[in-house]
Give the backbone structure.
Amino acid sequence: MFLTKSKSFLDGRCILKACRSLSTSSLVRSTDKTSQFRLKEIDSKRTQRKCPRTFRKCCIFQRPGTRNQEEEWSTSPYPKGSIPRGQSIYSLRPKVDPTLTSIILFPGQGTQYVGMGRNLMKFPVVQEMFESASAILGYDLLKLCVQGPASELNKTVHCQLAVLVCSLAAVEHMREERPSAIENCIAAAGFSVGEISALVFAGAISFERAIRLTKVRGEAMQLASEMAEGGMLTVLYSPKTNLADVCKKANEWAQNCGVERPECSVANYLFPDCKVIAGHVKALEYIEKNAASHAIRRTRRLPVTGAFHTSLMEPALEPFKLALNNAKLNEPAIAVHSNLDGKMYSNAKQITYKLPRQIVRPVKWEQTLHILYERAPGEQFPNTYECGPGSSLRSILRMVNAKATNTFYNYGS
């Protein structure tokens, strides 16, 4: 329903399978200045048997020319003598002009607003999507999105579903205006609940099943939020800040205030020097009151009542895991990157393992963006499309890799 395969897409799938056939020890980092990566001890016959032509055609390891000291200083983001991260090995890079490919990103909870979805109702498929979702949920989801009230829409049990449907509805808008963006999509990723949107787009989960799974997820997380007084705090800090030490002292302070087994940890990795910390309210209050002493520049409390992506969400883990185990899942048709580690899902079994754990683990969005957009100097970037309400993902990407936003487009709700 949400994906049309193209030749470049099929080539990419072949590369993906060929890469999985190689042991992880085959790729080793090199300190040689003229080569970033080299291949070591690869069984060439095995590689050719797995993918005889397409792998050699589409997968390359570039050997950049030597640069003088001035050029290295002006182009390399790494200190002299250090080994580059090389995180791009965890993403699919077909040997085609990057500007002819696309990456699609899906937003998560917190981007919802009253009125979203109204402008998308001119597309018949979108009307069918809202009708199908409302029939499963037992209430009018479209009315809630368009008319509110905001107090109901912002509840975890409702907003996750609203963002999911509006994000996939935005895909239909893009399909009408830029079908090539869907045909040439090589990767997708979603922030928190947006990861379910990405999996639906990739054909790993059906739309109807995604509605049921998100309903369970939202209800379970809402219940977990009511069991412990938690919250989330965006923290903009300086290089001198030791976040691990901040969280440790916040936990100690909360425990002295009578909180049993206090929780305070990073919940979202957004961009350098900016994270979202979640945990017990008392722990967050300590950070707000002592920000200056920890070289924290600014804090902002998020309008949520739960400590999402921390251990306080443990009660939500089993209900969602059970629902996911009973769902029929398919292998993603394109590369979908997990919030858990930023890496691609290789099969349906990995979805069953990783997706529930995302609820109690931090969203590694900054790491995911590095994997998707790390490029050599002068290399072109793919077109990126944010499908869903708001434009928060573009703002985050600008702080991680500003050049990648030069070809960034938003299809909102």
Q: What stands out?
A: The chain is about 45% helix and 15% strand. The mean pLDDT is 84. The CA atoms of residues 26 and 40 lie 5 Å apart.
